[in-house]
Amino acid sequence: MEVQFDGFPACEPGSRSLCLAAAQEHDTDALRAALQAADVPFHEPFSAVLCFELTPESLRKASAWWSVLDRRELESIRCLLSDQREVPTVARLMQSQRLSSLLAWMNGQWLLDVLRSNRLMTYFQPIVSASDPNQVFAYECLLRGQTREGGVISPYRLFTAARDTGLLKSLDAAARLTAIACFQSSHAPAETNVFINVNPRSLDDPCRNLHAAVQAILASGLAPERFVFELVESDQVTDFDNLLQILDFCREAGCRVALDDLGAGYNSLNLLAVMKPDFVKLDMDLIRDVDQDAYKGRVAGKLLELAKELQVKTVAEGVETAGEWQWVVHHGADYAQGYFFAKPAAVPPQPEVQVPSRAVHAAEFGVSDSDAEVVAVGTDLGSKRRDMKGSDK
Q: How far apart, in whole angstroms, are the C-alpha atoms of residue 130 and residue 157?
């Protein structure tokens, strides 16, 4: 087992010590009690500094007892890998990593195993024509992981671990390559497009970070214009120069771009002006019960009007009921996505929505649900669970 975390050099077990220092006496007492309870031999080279030989077994035992420490203690206690012959200074210890960082690194080792063994997979959710939901316009690629036993690892768990362990860039890049490969092998119809998530916060050098994805697209033999890079967590974007580099790189490769979660956060309208995207996705929280909430309906309606004036195609995300679907059709959304049409699946699913002609007519003219029968087959309309996407959505 090789030990390495947060920039510390790798070390073989037994060659180094892990030294822990606490600024307050009661934190030192709590740490001493935890190591004693874990039966981990340690020594104190000087006051408030506890050191023990670093081995897989000692690290496992110690970390099991560190879980009883509270958050403040984990943040205040510092840790440092040092040579067994070295006596670390207090100054060096105070500049070292927090104990919470070490625990996050340890808890994320399973993610490293997933990445190294290529146990990522893509689920697909259809984006359908709003007025004809059995016509699939595109599939959005949603990341999943796989345990060694074959179980599915949720995107929430993947991206939480990636943030905690500094692996967000690696996971985001691997997710894109996995999505391209899975879409290529899915044998989706030639006219079907694909939305692939991109988290701008994970791209410090857009040209370098996206180069592998673009090369994979070109090597796939699929037309680049079928690929849409969807910018997620856009409400947290602050570096607009970096964002424009991302957009330019994608478009120069022949791909299109989408802005996710329009209507969420304070930044989305500003981003709409900066990005000039090919597609915008209305935030699913805005679509939830939009047919029953007049205030929400006014906001969503104006956003759809604005996008139409700007000649930007719209996707209503998170549609889960017939009423929500009828509302987005009536208010001019181009496309729709959600559990009402199909759940994400490893094999690109085909929606099975029975749309009687009178239901379409009712939707176009804003007639209530009671005046039109809409039946969704094979979907889970009761679910309110949001699928966590690509970079952390």
A: 32
